Known about the structure:
The strands form eight sheets. Strands 3, 7, 8, 9, 10, 11, 12, 21 and 24 form a nine-stranded mixed β-sheet that branches. Strands 16-14-15-17-20 form a five-stranded mixed β-sheet. It is α+β, with helices and mostly antiparallel strands and 573 residues long. The chain has 15 helices and 31 strands. The longest helix is centred in the first third of the chain and has 21 residues, at 167-187. The protein folds into three domains: 3-235 and 400-452, Bira Bifunctional Protein, Domain 2 (BirA Bifunctional Protein, domain 2, 2-Layer Sandwich), CATH 3.30.930; 252-380, YbaK/aminoacyl-tRNA synthetase-associated domain (YbaK protein), CATH 3.90.960.10; 469-569, 3-Layer(aba) Sandwich (Rossmann fold), CATH 3.40.50.800. Helix 1 (21-28) crosses helix 11, helix 2 runs antiparallel to helix 6 (167-187) and helix 2 crosses helix 11. It binds adenosine-5'-triphosphate and magnesium ion. Adenosine-5'-triphosphate is lined by residues 109, 140, 142, 151-152, 155, 157, 200, 202, 405-408, 440-442, 444-445. Magnesium ion binds next to strand 21.
Amino acid sequence: MRWTEYFLPTLKETPSEADTQSHKLMLRAGLIRKVSSGVYNLLPLGKRSAMKVENIVREEMNRIGSLEILMPILSPAELWTESGRWDVYGKELMRVKDRHDRLFALGPTHEEVVTDIIRHDVRSYRQIPLTLYQIQTKFRDEVRPRFGVVRAREFMMKDAYSFHRDETCLAKTYEKMYEAYTRIFKRCGLTFGVVEADSGAIGGDVTHEFMVFAETGESQVFACECGYAATSDSAECEVVCPETGDDAKPVEKVNTPDMKTVEEVTEFLKKKPSDLLKTIIYNVDGSYVAVLIRGDREINEIKLVKVLGAVNIDMASPAEIEKLTGGPLGFSGPVGLKGAKVVADTTVAGMTNMVTGANEADTHLVNVNRGRDFEVDEFYDLLEVVAGDPCKRCGKLLSTWRGIEVGQVFKLGTKYSEIMKATFLDEKGEEKPFVMGCYGIGITRTVAAAIEQHNDKDGIAWPISIAPFEVHVLPTNVTEPDLKTTAEAIHDGLTEKGIEVLLDDRDERPGNKFKDADLVGFPLRVTVGERAAKEGNVELRIRKTGETTKIPKDDAVRVISEVVAEEKKKLVP
Ligand code: ATP
Ligand code: MG
């Protein structure tokens, strides 16, 4: 491929909209262009890299016997009402109406559609296990689209769904998928961790996320030396508040004028933040729930939604709090509270002689004790884990890192098959719901994650497996017939060997060409320069390491194709 016949609009300046390294570089190296918030064009380079990720994913899916299909993007609202997700999915589900006013969803994921296929065409235990997958555009109306194609509203995903007679059979496929995912991300040249996670809107109990290590990642992971690793959404730790065993003292009412924060109140009362019991009032699907947590810790709302089986939770407004408790925001407490269920984090169980709001302006209570002064309806683990908390498995201290989630595998069980009546007949002729699994990979997000991990101050440094081109041939002066012919011969020779080459045949200053070559970052660069050419050499440079070697120009095609093969081999798991 020749640059002058290609479409590769590089940018010298970094567009101001870009926030992460991968976002900046994808714009600057001409991989993507924005159409609208969270909606992007993939230009030729971007499309080439995405197709390479797709092909790796396809090969690994086929290897484990998963079958490729293609489901429509449009799916009728009826299917989503059947599963209950027309409401549950909320604003993230893009909805459209046809000319007859019939409602459709633009698929954010395809559990409903695939379950519908299976319930019509699979009747017997003999036809399962069965795993189907597709590679397709997905739509999610994300609250905060950002980081380019990392969190987009329209993006490419591979989604697979498996159907089984029982949990044992599902476990086998889950294991195979887990291994396939490991191979896929290794082949893409990524450094990643696999962590326990929350299943979100998809549902199910067991789920793992594949996280590419990246400072700019939106996911926070807590990890321990013992191997435990979980996302902040689901991480657990050993209870950090043992019972104090102190005797209960009499309750006192104290004046705390205008003191609303934990720090203000406890400092004034000469107490520690951990002596205070925070009471946060939530509106949970239309009913009030008071959530109690130790003053120095935060509530993990994802855990809260899960334990309450809630669809929507919002913090109650100041007006709602005033109406419910009788006191303003900042002075709520569980003593005498009516009209709200009281749930508490497990760490609250051991607290004695607590400070709480008095449900009255500018007033707190001191020496409040559970059992005597108020009751908790339900205890749950609601704690937002922080680095330094003890691991729930071994007690060592948890550390933390950030990552970009590129894939997730879920054991769904019978969540969709039961509600959508997708059943099969077993050997005894008994009707049973399918046991299901589902497995996603963000194709375009994986490209961005790879760039996030493989770049330097000059640009991208692609892993060869997903690089848009493998070799960049750069004649420093195309008006010099000698250089031009040599460069073309190398381009043609390598292309004939099936190697993907871009020849920079532009009549440009060498400085600009080198800058662009570093920016687009193909793994190998072959410079055909005047001095080396005089000696009968060309220069081979490895983008990642900067290592350069001189090779006789007549031997260039053979040597370079060997280096390409070696580089590729490094990424075979
Ligand atoms: P997140 O927590 O990042 O919102 P998710 O857990 O909702 O993602 P899944 O439903 O597990 O995502 O989707 C499977 C894969 O699709 C994800 O692992 C990710 O790689 C990709 N993906 C999800 N949402 C987006 C998005 N908005 N833009 C690009 N890729 C996405
Ligand atoms: Mg996910």
